[in-house]
Write a structure and sequence with these properties.
Layout lengths: L4 E5 L4 H12 L5 E4 L4 H11 L6 E4 L2 E4 L3 H8 L2
Parallel strand pairs: 1-2
Antiparallel strand pairs: 1-3, 3-4
């Protein structure tokens, strides 16, 4: 069953781009939230992660801060 994935990111963040590329390479659908342009998404991200840094991933409620490939693979079951 597919997991629900949200990526909180900014357009200029190199790690955000890597996370999204990694998800695309593994054919994982995700919702991208640009926290630079969307204040509500930014507030939601800070509430979930207690951090201002991006990227933040929400994989079925599991919060992963940064591009931690092993944690992401584990959370996605890939």
């Amino acid at each position: 069953m597919a997991k629900y994935v949200k990526v909180y990111s900014t357009p200029t963040c190199p790690w955000c781009i890597r996370v999204k590329d990694f998800l695309k390479e593994n054919k994982i659908e995700f919702q991208n939230l640009d926290v630079a342009a969307d204040q509500l998404a930014a507030d939601e991200m800070v509430k979930k992660s207690n951090q201002m840094g991006v990227p933040v991933l929400d994989i079925d409620g599991q919060i992963i801060v940064g591009f931690d490939k092993e944690k992401i693979k584990l959370a996605l079951g890939i």
